[in-house]
Specification:
The complex is a heterotrimer of chains A (438), B (276) and C (306). Chain A contains 16 helices and 16 strands. Chain A is an alpha/beta fold. With 306 residues, chain C is mainly alpha-helical. In chain C, helix 1 packs across helix 12, helix 3 runs parallel beside helix 7 and helix 3 packs antiparallel against helix 9. Chains in contact: A-B, A-C, B-C.
């Protein structure tokens, strides 16, 4: 509708962008973001931006549990409150497919992410024709906080027992057994509560060369869950949740309990988000500060590594004036440089670039997680890359969780989860090919 | 008094104070977390080093405006509760003690019950759209009026129950003396239901004070209330127990003060106003 | 104004009072609840999808209801748990709240103030904090509850992780949290009982229990009925505590209706399906209230007959 003024504005902005940064004066913008351990580092970046450019970015800080609702309310109304929204990876497909965000290329013609920016399985690009993320899709946003799952292990306990970093699930299990036998600590903690388990199980599944489903063409999907590979993956997960290595009743362990067990030293290994690193390293919150290390998540039998993405992407809504969209993009563009990402890490953030281990940070012991982070980020996948991801995740989670607490066998859990997933996909317009029951 | 009776008294007292202990001990333990480091909280340490860092984070960090949030909660809680109580008491008197067409009674009470039974969180989207349309989203007006309508069913039914507990003879006598409906309300009903009114006021104030769903959707940073602020400490990767406990401590105190002082104020005001 | 009030003006005033006393409530309901409620009821017959920034409403008839009754599993586990939950917590809260109100009503003025203050504590704590904090208290490894058990030399309990007792733990927290609601209303009811009526009635009974059963309970019936009604409704709507304590797990051990609705309506953004759940829940609560009323009425009838 209002294409012409926006294009004129885009040209104007493109011209302005050609001028030196100090001359780039932008209107004030408001960003919806959540309160989190990484917020302070983001605030530090905003402060730096304001000091360097004189532009103002107002942060509307919300509880994590309410941010999605605030974003939905704003982007769905005729005139939005927010010029920039921080979207969790769980919500990305919903926000992208709803058409609420302006493609960055529409705001500034030909805009592309800077080299070295991680996309966590092409999650910055959306292909509306397929209804999924795709490197060939339209660029919709810029990651503002990186986060993927990594393997945490307690270096002190490893040293005591003479263990080495596991490369396969088999080795992870034997390490866990050695720890359970040789120390008071649990060998491993799964994050198997219902609201966590799909995310936590994803690396097991994808490293076994299986998937929840695969998009085989436009509007076509093939379920890959109840296969021999899927069964091997779930059995690997169940083994790591067993009484011999894990705490009792792991079906109730969510992120809070997992971090509690690691930071008190009660557990020695876990697969958890890199965002927990700060808490584990802070002596006011952790008894194992300085003892933890991060590593690449083990590979499956075929040598495949996988991690699951849990990052944040900032997008610019359609329903705000063009000049504020341009201002929002100016901030996002500024945010990406390697130099600034080093600052971000030093302020306690998780970077959105994979090339920081080569900088001065690489040599600093405080940032010893960077290698493992970058390696896992390379393998990060979005397990459920379609609009109804939350629905599919909840439907499958029940069965995986039941398998962990022993209410369902692995086979039945996979068959049921596959059936539930197929139902969600079909309701969302996919023609689904299914596997015979296990 | 017989020995059995005394024994009964002692046992009853034991139960009451035992129950009080069951409330006080966990509460104190929880609130003591406000003065602890997180590592001591998550390891369940009872005795541990004391720190003020949680309060510093809560009160002086740039991202937190907790005193302002408390003020917002007080504004929203006091005004919305006052409105609910005034209009609910009048309506309850009319519905409970006067002759009202049956369909009016059914419509109002039935709707109130229906509205109360449906989950609040399914409404907040509609409310957002409505307030946005009239340009009032994020203002006190929007939050206060929405709190009023949300708590109105409870205020209405509570006051109705207290109104219907009043003895009928009093109203008959008043009507015989030629009192109009309004006079009956002010002179007979109002003074007699003040105990119930105080209880209803306290409850409705508490519901408004601790509401999360409505306040989250309808406030802006300038009007954000304390429960929304407190919930920002339940984060995605991290639950900030210490700051949460500090925030709770700071929000319990004004709530209790407002309830207890408010009660005294209402009682005195009513006693002064009542013409028996 | 005119000092002599004729019969006509009194009648007019009385009519005006009827209208003026009911109008504010009616206006509030009409303006601020009409649209949300009707919207919700209507949405249960639609599927809503968002494309290109705009909502597409597609009418699906009773499909959402069919799905709910034929394909759904989690919601119905929640219905079962919620029924157990509601009956359990409301009964305990009524008994506890009423007993404590009786005790406080008979206590001296100092004890009365202290006890009232203490008994009110749980409801002034925001629900989100209640859930978080009790999760800490009931933690298996480091929780206060298990520390006490260990100190007493008893076996630890996995309060929230063991599927067999998780619901009971959640119910305990709810009883702890909401008994003050009952207490406050019962106390108000007791205090407003007319002393003369009580004294007159006491002549006919002997002993404290007789007095409670045959005099106080019947006189308090209106308050008790309303309190039960609201506790049932609120316990059907329980959400914050469960969300933070267990998120419905392990398995479906602590799934409750409102959590299913939250997940469907909000997290998964299936507003049509979530609305259908809300409407079905509405009928479930109504049924429960009718049953409770029937029970109370029968009890009352039995007592009157004695």
């Amino acid at each position: 509708m209002k294409k012409t003024p926006r294009n004129i504005a885009a040209i104007f902005v493109a011209l302005a962008g050609a001028l030196p940064a100090s001359a780039e004066s932008q209107p004030e913008i408001t960003m919806a973001i959540n309160q989190s351990p990484w917020l302070n580092s983001f605030v530090a970046m905003v402060d730096l931006y304001e000091a360097e450019t004189g532009n103002v970015v107002v942060l509307d800080v919300n509880p994590f549990g309410g941010l999605l609702e605030k974003i939905r309310n704003s982007v769905r109304s005729t005139e939005g409150t927010y010029d920039l929204v921080a979207v969790n990876s769980l919500w990305l497909s919903e926000i992208y497919s709803g058409g609420f965000l302006a493609p960055l290329g529409d705001i500034r013609a030909g805009y592309a992410l800077q080299d070295g920016i991680l996309t966590y399985g092409a999650t910055t690009n959306w292909d509306p024709a397929v209804g999924s993320f795709s490197p060939d899709g339209t660029l919709m946003g810029v990651p503002v906080n990186g986060n993927v799952q990594v393997l945490y292990y307690n270096q002190a306990i490893y040293d005591d027992l003479g263990l080495s970093v596991p490369a396969t699930w088999e080795e992870l299990y034997s390490n866990a057994m050695a720890i359970a036998d040789g120390t008071d600590s649990y060998g491993f903690v799964p994050r198997a509560a219902r609201d966590s388990i799909v995310y936590n199980f994803t690396p097991y599944l994808f490293s076994h060369d299986a998937a929840f489903f695969r998009v085989t063409g436009p509007g076509q999907a093939e379920i890959g869950l109840n296969t021999a590979e899927g069964l091997a993956a779930l059995n690997a997960y169940l083994r790591m949740s067993g009484e011999d290595v894990a705490p009792p009743n792991p079906g109730a362990i969510a992120q809070g309990e997992l971090i509690q067990l690691l930071s008190t030293g009660r557990a020695a290994q876990a697969i958890a988000v890199i965002a927990a690193w700060g808490a584990l390293e802070n002596p006011n919150e952790s008894r194992v500060a300085g003892q933890m290390s991060a590593a690449l998540i083990p590979a499956g039998p075929g040598g495949t590594h996988a991690s699951s993405a849990g990052h944040w992407v900032a997008g610019i809504p359609n329903n705000v004036p063009a000049e504020r969209q341009a201002a929002a993009l100016a901030f996002l563009d500024w945010f990406q440089s390697q130099e600034l990402q080093v600052n971000y890490v030093e302020a306690g953030g998780v970077p959105v670039r994979g090339d920081l281990a080569d900088t001065d940070l690489g040599a600093n012991n405080a940032y010893r997680f960077l290698d493992a982070y970058s390696a896992n980020a390379e393998n990060a996948v979005m397990g459920l890359p379609f609009a109804a991801a939350a629905e599919a995740s909840d439907a499958m989670a029940l069965h995986f969780n039941r398998a962990v607490i022993g209410e369902e066998s692995a086979e039945i859990a996979l068959n049921s989860a596959a059936e539930a997933l197929a139902g969600v996909l079909e309701r969302n317009g996919f023609a689904v090919t299914r596997q015979p029951d296990l | 008094m017989s020995g059995r009776r005394i024994a009964g008294r002692v046992a009853a007292n034991g139960v009451v104070w035992g129950y009080a202990a069951l409330i006080v001990l966990p509460t104190l333990w929880v609130l003591s977390n406000a003065f602890k480091y997180k590592i001591d909280i998550i390891t369940g340490a009872t005795i541990s080093p004391i720190t003020w860092s949680n309060f510093e984070q809560l009160l002086f960090s740039r991202q937190s405006h907790f005193l302002w949030n408390l003020f917002n909660s007080a504004v929203v809680g006091v005004i919305s509760t006052a409105i609910v109580i005034v209009i609910a008491t009048m309506a309850a008197f009319t519905l409970g003690r006067l002759r009202v067409p049956g369909w009016v009674r059914w419509l109002i009470l039935g709707w109130a019950l229906l509205f109360q039974m449906l989950p609040t969180l399914t409404f907040v989207g509609s409310w957002y759209v409505m307030w946005q349309a009239v340009g009032l989203h994020g203002t006190y007006v929007a939050v206060i009026l929405t709190h009023v309508v949300h708590n109105l069913p409870m205020g209405l039914f509570l006051m109705l129950s207290f109104m219907s507990a009043l003895p009928n003879e009093l109203f008959q006598a008043a009507r015989m003396d030629g009192c109009s409906n309004g006079q009956m309300f002010w002179r007979v009903a109002f003074p007699l239901v003040r105990g119930g009114m105080i209880a209803a006021t306290a409850l409705i104030f508490i519901f408004s004070w601790s509401d999360f769903a409505i306040s989250l959707a309808l406030t802006s940073p300038a009007t954000m209330t304390a429960p929304v602020a407190i919930s920002t400490f339940a984060q995605e990767y991290d639950i900030r127990y210490g700051e949460m406990a500090a925030g709770t401590l700071l929000s319990i105190v004004p709530a209790l003060v407002l309830i207890l002082v408010g009660q005294r104020f209402i009682v005195r005001g009513l006693l002064a106003g009542a013409v028996k | 104004m005119n000092a002599t009030i004729t019969h006509g003006t009194t009648a007019r005033r009385n009519r005006r009072w009827l209208v003026l006393s009911l109008a504010p409530v009616a206006v509030f309901f009409l303006v601020l609840s009409g649209f949300p409620v009707l919207n919700l009821l209507g949405l249960s017959f639609f599927n809503v999808e968002w494309h290109e920034g705009a909502a597409n409403f597609s009418y699906v008839g009773i499909e959402n209801y069919r799905r709910l009754f034929v394909e759904e599993t989690i919601y119905w586990a929640g219905v079962r748990n919620t029924l157990i939950f509601a009956v359990g917590v409301v009964t305990c809260q009524m008994v506890l709240g009423f007993s404590m109100a009786l005790a406080v009503n008979r206590a001296g003025s100092a004890g009365r103030t202290i006890l009232t203050g203490i008994f009110l504590l749980p409801i002034v704590i925001p629900p989100i904090v209640i859930g978080t904090m009790w999760r800490l208290v009931m933690g298996r490894e480091f929780g206060l509850a298990n520390s006490l058990l260990r100190a007493l030399g008893l076996q630890e309990v996995d309060w929230l992780g063991n599927p067999d007792i998780a619901l009971a733990s959640v119910m305990f927290v709810d009883i702890w949290h909401w008994t003050p609601f009952v207490f406050l209303l019962m106390l108000a009811g007791l205090e407003s009982l007319d002393e003369e009526v009580l004294d007159a009635a006491r002549m006919d009974v002997t002993g404290f229990w007789q007095e409670v059963r045959h005099i106080i309970l019947p006189l308090m019936m209106p308050t008790i009925v309303i309190t039960v009604l609201f506790r049932i409704i609120l316990s059907f709507k329980v959400f914050d505590e469960v969300y933070l304590l267990t998120s419905g797990g392990p398995g479906t051990a602590t799934e409750v209706i409102n959590f299913s609705i939250y997940r469907t309506f909000f997290r998964q953004d299936q507003v049509g399906y979530g609305s259908a759940m809300s409407v079905v829940t509405l009928f479930a609560i109504t049924l429960m209230i009718i049953l409770a009323r029937g029970l109370l009425a029968r009890r009352k009838g039995a007592e009157d007959a004695e």
